[in-house]
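Researcher: Please translate sequence to structure tokens.
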Amino acid sequence: MKILLIEDSLRLQHSLKEGLSHEGFAVDITGNGLEGLEFIEVYEYDVIILDLMLPGMDGLSLLKKIRQDGNRSQVLILSAKDQIQDRVRGLDLGADDYLIKPFAFEELLARLRTLIRRKFDQKSPRLNIGPLTLNLSSLRVTREGKQILLSPKEFALLEYLSVRQGSVISREKLIEHLYGGDRDVGSNVIDVMVCHVRKKIELPGEKLIKTVRGYGYLVE
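Model: Translation complete:
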């Protein structure tokens, strides 16, 4: 899944980029509110992690602007402002969640997963794809109770296709949501990854991930 982190602390930028990338997220980063708005106007994000005290444009003004423009990305405010009125104002302006600094990285991950499930109307963290069960909280894939080991990027690929069941997803869209700002990734990287995932999740004769020639991939 693709995340935009708008945070002016270089230390926090580095630690969250490293941690979220390790978990399979594609992460774009900026420390400026106006630059964050430019990112949002160009790219599609599943979740925007938004600090409030930002140069260029403060977080609440940015939040108000993107909601007025109809942007429906999930927004998680990440702020040291811990007063009730601060949280209420952020949520009233359209934030989907509010996490106070300092925080535990594990809690941030749990909240991100919840927001992603909410975006795709997944009430349960468990998603069934044919004989497979994807647990979107524990990042586990099982088949008849037996775990299938996937790398974080392989899980992210299967998750992205699965929450969009019935939709054909282009290679370009998969690159954008799996690798974020790395625009040098070639489409063959996606093809190779799909091949590896198929070998792990499919039995002979199965087609859980279908190829749509000339466009991309589909999970029905």
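Researcher: Any highlights?
Model: The two ends are 19 Å apart (CA to CA).
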